[in-house]
Each structure stands twice: as C-alpha cells, then as structure tokens.
Amino acid sequence: RQAPALSPSQATMGNAQSLSRNAAKRKSLVKLTNIIAPVPSDLDVAQAAAVVPIKIVAAACGLDETDYEPYGHFKAKVSEKVVAKLKAERGEGYYVVVAGINPTPLGEGKSTTTIGLAQAMGAHLNKACVACIRQPSMGPTFGIKGGAAGGGYSQVIPMEEMNLHLTGDIHAIGVANNLLAAAIDTRVFHELTQKDDALFDRLCPKKKDGTRAFVVSMSKRLKKLGITATDPDVLTPAEKTAFARLNIDREKISWRRVVDMNDRFLRKITVGQSDTEKGFTRETGFDITVASEIMAVLAMTTSMADMEERLGNMVVAPDDAGNPVTADDLGITGALAALMRDAIKPTLMQTLEGTPVLVHAGPFANIASGNSSIIADQIGRSMVGTGGFVLTEAGFGADIGLEKFMNLKCRSSGMKPHAAVIVATVRALKLHGGGPPVSPGKPLAHSYTNEDVALVQAGVSNLVRHIQNTKKFGVPVVVAMNMFPTDTAAEHAVIRAAALSAGADDCVLCTHHAEGGKGAVALGEAVVAACEKNEAAAGFTLLYPSECTIKEKIEKIAKELYRAGDVSYSEEAEAKMKLFTAQGFGHLPICMAKTQYSFSHDANLKGAPEGFTIPIGDLRCSAGAGFLVALVGAFPTIPGLPTRPAYYEIGIDPVTEQVLGLS
C-alpha cells in the first residue's frame, strides 16, 4: 500500500500552519480516481486505496507532532489537551449529528453516509471537516453486521485496522471492566472468610518498622465514612470494621464481566464453582464489551480528571443496608484509570479522500449510549475552527441513537447541534410499508429489487416520525436518501415529498457509495445551508428536565418519541426505581435499551406504530457515565452468532499478510 505523491507544499508543516490559520477552508489531500462500476467489495476498494501517512493528515489539520502519538504509519492518538489551544486559535466549528430511520438487519449505510458527507465537505466543497465515529466492536464484525468503516467509495482506511483491534481501546475497557468484576467477587469472598481484625490487617499491613499507612486509593472510602485520621492504628474498632467491610449484597451485584464477541452462552453463568471458592457460587452473566459502563464513561468524559472521577463513581452493588458500593469503595479507581490512560485519546484516521476522521468509543445504541465520545467531538470542533464542520454519528435510528445524543451527550457536554442528517433508504421504507422480512444471507424479495411506489408510500410514515421527533429538539433536519442501484426516480420522489411535508429543510439523493464524496456534494451543500441558517443553535432544547422523576423521564421518551400509549414496569424495575431514587440517582437522565428495528419494543411492529405498551423489565444504574439504563423487556446485552456468521469469509493471505473477507 503506497502513499500518494504529494506536492512539497502539502507535506510541509508550514502549509499546515497556514491551513490552521484559515481552518474553515482546506484543500483535499487525495482525489479519488479510477472508480470502478459496479463497486467492488469494501475490502477490495480499501486495499486498493493510497493511504496518506498520518503525519501528513495531522499536519494538514494544523496539529503539531507534540499533539499526537503515531500508532504505526496510518493511525495516531490525539490528546484531549489540544482542545483549549486550538479553540483559542480558531474557535469552534458547526456541530452536525448523523442518524437514520429504523433500519433493516442489513443496515442502511449511515456510517457510509457520514463518511461520504465528510469526503464531500473536505474534498469537493473545500470545507474544514472532521468526521467523528465509533470504534467497531468485533462482535458484529465476526457476526452478522460486519465492520463499521463505511462502504464502497466512502470508507475510513485502513479498513482492516479500523475493524480489527484498532489501537486497543476496547481491549483496555474489557480488562478494566473485568479487573473490577474480579475485585468485587474477591472482596466478597475475603469478607465472608475472614474476621474483622484479620481483614483490616491485610488491607493495611504493617511495614517493617511496625507502622501502617493508608494509600491514596483508600482516601475516597475514608472520606465517605467521615474518617479523618491518617494513621490506621488510631481508628476505633468500629471505624476499622466500617472501613474493612463493604458488606456487599452478593445477590444484588450489578457489575458483569464482558467480552468483545457475540457469545449467547455467556448471557447467564455461575461463578465460584471451584472447590477453592468454598461453595460461594453466584449467578451472573456477561455483556458485550461495548455495553460496559466503562465504555459509556469513555464516551461521556471530558478529561483525564473527569474520567477518573466517573470511574470512581461507578456503582457495582448495594450493601446490606441498600447504600451504593462504588469503585472508589473498592480502592480500584486509580488502577482503572491507569488501564484507560491511552484509551481516552481518540484515534486519528482518514477517509478514502484524505478527510480526517476521529474514531473513539463504541457504545451500541440499542443497549448503551450509542454515540462516539464527547472528547472526539470537542477535538474535532476545535480542529476545524469557526466555519468548519464536525459530523458525529449517532447509532441506529433517530429513536435511540439521536435521542441519546440529545438527552445524554448534549446534556452532559453543553454542546448544541446546528443540524441533523437523517439517512433513509427505499429498501428500509419498503419494509416499514409492509414488505416481506429482510434477513442477512437471504436474497431480497422481488418487491425490494423492483419499483413499488405504493410500498414506499406506505412506509414513509417511519421517516416522517423521525423527522418530527428530531425537530422536537429544535434542530433542523436534512434527509439523505442513500441510493441503491434498484431504486427508481418515482420512489425517490415519494420520499422527498414526504420529508419536505414533515418539515425537513431538504431531502437530497446521495450516491456516495458508488462515487465517493462527489456523490454527496448536494447533501453537503444542504447541510451547510441548514447550519448557516441556525448559526447560534438557539432553538435547541432537551426533551425533559433533570428534576423529573425516573418514571416521568421514561414515559416522556416512550410517549412523545415512540408514541406508546402506556408504559408497564416489572416488579424488579419498580424496586430499582425506588432504590436508585433513595440512593440519590433519581436526577440522572435515562438511556433506553430497546430494539433498533421499531419505535416500539417489538421488532416486528414496523412503520410508525402508536398506542402500544412499552414494558420496562429492569433498570441499571450507570452513575459513572451519568445515566440510568432502562431495559425494555428482556433485552439481551450480549448478542449471539447466526447460523452462518461473517467469520466464514474472513482469513489472511499468508504471502502478502493482507486480511481477506472483511465486510
């Protein structure tokens, strides 16, 4: 893989400094040539591309070598500390969120549209632009959905590095998560098998000179107990016991282990079955790593100090009296922060046309917060400067990813979006109009590959609902029709008419999958126009205030956005709401965990259903991330593999060492 030939002016730091002074206008580093029709596989396109060395991409963004750490030739970690410097020099760019309608299981090209739009902005409209997207989980990569680097001629490259490990952030999260899980079970075991004095002596062992000392990681626990003494030996017996015994209610431990794979058989397990654990077994389960609260903390944090505070606030269980037990109580916060030291830095990559991309965090939108990190967005806005554009992707449909972007991410960061792009396809709207089921690995039915205007007309209600919901937040909407080869002009006309009637600022046909940035120029122009009309983002509003009760927040989302007629709560959910309110977490916003395929809890309810009852099966407290998770029904938090997973296609060429079969 060769880097393209660059003129000396493109490669010099002097040019980068010139670009930084005029951040809103930049020339593309790469122009797509030799576009092939029909479009080859994503991997073939990516592996045929000329990749610019990351130091050239960084220099073109006005970054000094001290602002980033290269990971190989084509990736680099960017420090969050650059924000203050760049913001003072350049100001901040427009903030655009890219979401979609409820998709088919095949996906509707939202990531591809985000990247295609970024290429259009940067390579064709000469706008300073940064795309901010999530890191792919390897569960879907080897399962059904495939990777998340975009597709066709609108991709992040190197695509293989993007989809496989990247810079190890997800692995760091998994290790940190499982270290905490091990610490919880081990602490319970030691408290069950030791007396007070022995437990205290082991937590605060005597040094060779006979003295003891508290370590820094114990300070939060001591403060929580109101203990001000710095010498462990002066504590009263009651204080020693209170310090040493967390009294975790082992039947209510909420912290679960994680793995970054789709493994349905880990959904429910029993730990502690070895004889060495003396019969202290416990039923628990695994989540997929991207559903870990540590992933959510990474997505919501703003600095290293903020991340450490959030990690310490994570609640792992109640104690026997119902009080929250946190990572700080376990004295593990510093170790977790150390494991996350590099993960807090977004990874700088590039599109096929040289537009910079920040890849960071990867929470699923159906079971977690569903957006890339606040830090990446802040870095991106400071990199592009006033008049530039940051495109940040929200997962799945606008009912979950975009809702969480508004109510969780913007609430926490204070940033206000200037526009929203909603991606729609003829295929998905036909499904919402009553078309036959769409399943990975099976041929599409005749109605999807041939014109059926009536089916599209019946399904546009789904798009209309998403537009209406987005406008509830006071954000202008541009609809991107992601074109497929089997679409017809008559079908597109139906979508455009419905979108404009619903209040969209524009509805634009896009061919970026086949043509790269050139195919999204009209979309880029529409986004620029929408942002410039909403320069102050003055109309932005949240759906509910923080002081609402937990139930009021859940029902606000369910009834106003999903259009449910009612909400039901299991006994466990009712108990959790009382517990979390009593613990002081009732003010936190709500993160709904539900299917991405419908506005409702039932994936088979297509279109724009109304009047259904949303069942809340359980709640989880993500105090570190700063929200409560409401699980709609019995929603699994680790996916399973299909009969024929994507891994059948994946391999490696032993001679060239190129990865094969990724999608």
From TrEMBL:
- A Pfam family of this chain: FTHFS
Q: What is its EC number?
A: 6.3.4.3
What is the name attached to this protein's record? formate--tetrahydrofolate ligase
- InterPro entries xrefs: Formate_THF_ligase (IPR000559), Formate_THF_ligase_CS (IPR020628), P-loop_NTPase (IPR027417)
In Gene Ontology terms, what is one molecular function of this protein? formate-tetrahydrofolate ligase activity
Which pathway does UniProt place it in? One-carbon metabolism; tetrahydrofolate interconversion
Q: Please, one GO biological process term?
A: tetrahydrofolate interconversion
Can the keyword Lipid biosynthesis be found in this entry's annotation? Answer: no
* PROSITE patterns with a match to the protein in the record: FTHFS_1, FTHFS_2
Which keywords, in A-to-Z order, does the entry hold? ATP-binding, Ligase, Nucleotide-binding, One-carbon metabolism
